[in-house]
């Protein structure tokens, strides 16, 4: 679940940039399938937990896990009642679905950390490598999440649109008034590097 849910979130965030119907469907199904598999795995984990462990809900991991399990099922139900595009309820649905999904991801991350601490307290085994691995995964996924917003902007930098000549940001366009066609001449501003 700690990997599938974020992958599904990243896939659906990519879909709003797609115009091709096939790619859009692939990203939507990747989102849906990864979320359903994460839901099934969390259900299996909950069943195993109730079956094999004494669950007195006396630690944070168990309490967060129980609330997270309920929220995950709520998120799945909200996902299944998605109104069609163009519907007046679609904006409200999107906001609710996004808020619940973000809550699930944040609570899931917190619950894995609290689970590792509970494991350490119960067994006295070292959890350092697991903490490091989880932290690296969370950081990479967070960077990917944040990078998605800027990817389209980064790709457009340096792209020449249309047939206009490329003008760098350090160039200056000068229009000479004596020419009726107003041809543009580009003069580079020389950058003086006095610090060298």
TrEMBL record:
<dbReference type="GO" id="GO:0020037">
    <property type="term" value="F:heme binding"/>
</dbReference>
<keyword id="KW-0349">Heme</keyword>
<keyword id="KW-0479">Metal-binding</keyword>
<dbReference type="GO" id="GO:0016020">
    <property type="term" value="C:membrane"/>
</dbReference>
<dbReference type="InterPro" id="IPR045150">
    <property type="entry name" value="CYB561D1/2"/>
</dbReference>
<dbReference type="GO" id="GO:0140575">
    <property type="term" value="F:transmembrane monodehydroascorbate reductase activity"/>
</dbReference>
<feature type="domain" description="Cytochrome b561">
    <location>
        <begin position="1"/>
        <end position="155"/>
    </location>
</feature>
<dbReference type="Pfam" id="PF03188">
    <property type="entry name" value="Cytochrom_B561"/>
</dbReference>
<feature type="transmembrane region" description="Helical">
    <location>
        <begin position="26"/>
        <end position="50"/>
    </location>
</feature>
<keyword id="KW-0408">Iron</keyword>
<protein>
    <recommendedName>
        <fullName>Cytochrome b561 domain-containing protein</fullName>
    </recommendedName>
</protein>
<feature type="transmembrane region" description="Helical">
    <location>
        <begin position="62"/>
        <end position="80"/>
    </location>
</feature>
<keyword id="KW-0249">Electron transport</keyword>
<keyword id="KW-0812">Transmembrane</keyword>
<dbReference type="GO" id="GO:0046872">
    <property type="term" value="F:metal ion binding"/>
</dbReference>
<keyword id="KW-0813">Transport</keyword>
<keyword id="KW-1133">Transmembrane helix</keyword>
<keyword id="KW-0472">Membrane</keyword>
<dbReference type="InterPro" id="IPR006593">
    <property type="entry name" value="Cyt_b561/ferric_Rdtase_TM"/>
</dbReference>
<feature type="transmembrane region" description="Helical">
    <location>
        <begin position="127"/>
        <end position="147"/>
    </location>
</feature>
<feature type="transmembrane region" description="Helical">
    <location>
        <begin position="92"/>
        <end position="115"/>
    </location>
</feature>
């Amino acid at each position: 679940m700690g990997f599938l849910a974020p992958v599904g979130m990243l896939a659906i965030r990519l879909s709003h940039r797609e115009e091709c119907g096939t790619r859009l469907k692939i990203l939507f199904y990747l989102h849906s399938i990864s979320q359903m598999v994460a839901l099934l795995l969390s259900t299996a984990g909950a069943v195993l937990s109730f079956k094999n462990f004494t669950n007195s809900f006396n630690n944070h991991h168990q309490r967060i896990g129980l609330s997270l399990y309920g929220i995950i099922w709520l998120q799945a139900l909200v996902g299944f009642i998605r109104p069609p595009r163009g519907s007046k309820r679609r904006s409200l649905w999107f906001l609710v679905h996004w808020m619940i999904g973000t809550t699930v991801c944040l609570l899931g991350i917190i619950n894995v950390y609290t689970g590792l601490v509970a494991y350490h307290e119960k067994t006295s085994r070292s959890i350092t490598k697991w903490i490091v691995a989880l932290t690296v995964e969370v950081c990479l996924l967070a960077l990917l999440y944040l990078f998605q917003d800027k990817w389209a902007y980064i790709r457009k930098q340096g792209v020449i649109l249309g047939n206009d000549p490329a003008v760098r940001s350090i160039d200056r366009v000068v229009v000479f008034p004596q020419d009726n066609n107003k041809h543009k001449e580009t003069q580079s501003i020389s950058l003086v590097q006095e610090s060298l």
